[in-house]
Every structure is written in structure tokens, then in C-alpha cells.
Design goal:
extended, 2 strands
């Protein structure tokens, strides 16, 4: 969004990387019924959850509202993240 071609090219690469990371996260870590959601719907379900960032013992911890539905989602997503294997390099 500038007049400089190189800056715009870099901006588009960052946007593309962010899109690819979100899509990879969506395909590998989210429940099957969430995998076809648009980015807008995904944002509203996942990133607009009420929570609080606290620092007990100086370690950042994200605490969500006490909801069985949110707890189920978070547990399922964390379980899928833990099952991921690192890329061989």
C-alpha cells in the first residue's frame, strides 16, 4: 500500500505467508467441521473468545471464560497441536 514497488511486494509476501500459516493451522489443528470456514468465520469463533492474559509466576497464561464448549474446543485444538511432528530439515 505504498508507491514503492519493493515495499508493496514485501507486503504481499507477508500477507501470503500469514494466509498460508492460518490455512495450515486450520487444516492440521482444527476440528473437521471448522476446516471449511472462511477466515472471517474462523476469526469470530476462535479469536473473539473472551479471555484474560495473566502472568502467574511471570509466565504468560491465557485464561478463557469457564465454558464447557470453549473448554472442549481448546482441548481438541491443543491435542491436535501436540500430535504434530516437526519438519525434517
Amino acid at each position: 500500500p505504498t508507491r514503492a514497488f519493493a515495499a508493496n511486494a514485501l507486503y504481499l509476501e507477508v500477507v501470503r505467508l500469514a494466509y498460508n500459516l492460518v490455512t495450515a493451522f486450520q487444516r492440521t489443528c482444527l476440528p473437521e467441521e471448522w476446516q471449511s470456514l472462511t477466515l472471517s468465520k474462523l476469526r469470530s469463533r476462535l479469536f473473539w473468545l473472551p479471555g484474560e492474559l495473566t502472568r502467574p509466576q511471570n509466565r504468560p497464561t491465557l485464561r478463557f471464560a469457564n465454558s464447557p464448549l470453549i473448554q472442549k474446543w481448546v482441548n481438541e485444538i491443543l491435542h491436535r497441536i501436540r500430535r504434530l511432528k516437526p519438519l525434517e530439515g
